[in-house]
Amino acid sequence: MELIVELREVYKEIEGREILRNISFAVPKGKIFSIIGGSGSGKTSITKLMVGLWKPTKGKVFLFGEDISSLSLQGLDSLRRRIGYVFQEGALFDSLKVWENVGFYFLEHSDMKAHEIKELALEKLRLVNLDESVLELMPSELSGGMKKRVAIARAMATQPDLIIYDEPTSGLDPITSRVIDSLVLELNRKTGITAVVVTHDMISAFSISDRVILIRSGEIVVEGTPQEVLSSDNPFVQEFVGGMKDCLSGKGA
Ligand SMILES: Nc1ncnc2c1ncn2[C@@H]1O[C@H](COP(=O)(O)OP(=O)(O)OP(=O)(O)O)[C@@H](O)[C@H]1O
Ligand SMILES: [Mg+2]
């Protein structure tokens, strides 16, 4: 099975503090893989290691099958270009229209004409179930859920092989959160794109993921399919997912 990301016994120390310990997992091509954990548990840090923004203190990181410690900056850069990011802060450029946000990469890095970029932006917006009516809007004119969609469309614009969502449902109401979950699933099914989803939203993680890891204080507590994690008898898992089992159907159910 082709692996898109793999961490092998990764440790990370910052300012004398070990923030990640013995992290190992693999993300197979085409799957949705979620990293769940409370605030400060180390989720975003794992994504920084995954994409080579941070170097592990110990252990190995493989991205698209390549050991990233063996790559030049250029080599790493070309792998990074195959990744789309939906950042934790959502971060659309407030002074740019929706189409300019979605087409940002092409505005900066190509000779494409404005109308071509607009066309491409529209194609990506359709992927997230938006239409031409939003093209000329400013981010301030969008609802929270629409902003997330536009951020996802922007991440998809370069046809990445991997998309990383950091807290895609944070700050959204429960109904809009479920809509974004469906969208993450739909994109995975329609395009086959591999997804890593960072979240503390248990409902979200268990309903969309093929596999999940649960992180606590920089360590993996449990790893497996949503069903496997839900049925784990680890006390922390029970505490973390407690009371949720009944309201979950789970992707693999
Ligand atoms: N640049 C940094 N310098 C020092 N410590 C850091 C840095 N980035 C993260 N940390 C620490 O590492 C730990 C994990 O942080 P991280 O941002 O990965 O958590 P998280 O699970 O993404 O949390 P949240 O759900 O709040 O986003 C925290 O204790 C944090 O204070
Ligand atoms: Mg985070």
Topology:
Elements: E1 3-14, E2 17-28, E3 32-37, H1 43-50, E4 58-63, E5 66-67, H2 73-80, E6 83-86, H3 98-102, H4 104-109, H5 114-127, H6 144-156, E7 162-166, H7 174-191, E8 194-199, H8 202-208, E9 211-216, E10 219-224, H9 226-230, H10 235-241
Helix pairs in contact: 5-6
Bound molecules: adenosine-5'-triphosphate and magnesium ion (MG).
How would you characterize this protein structure?
- With 253 residues, the chain is α/β, with parallel strands linked by helices.
- It contains ten helices and ten strands.
- Strands 6-7-8-3-9-10 form a six-stranded mixed sheet, sandwiched between helices. A four-stranded antiparallel sheet has the order 2-1-4-5, covered by helices on one side.
- The radius of gyration is 18 Å and the shape is globular.
- The mean pLDDT is 92.
- The protein binds adenosine-5'-triphosphate and magnesium ion.
In short:
The chain contains 10 helices and 10 strands. It has helices at residues 43-50, 73-80, 98-102, 104-109, 114-127, 144-156, 174-191, 202-208, 226-230, 235-241; strands spanning 3-14, 17-28, 32-37, 58-63, 66-67, 83-86, 162-166, 194-199, 211-216, 219-224.
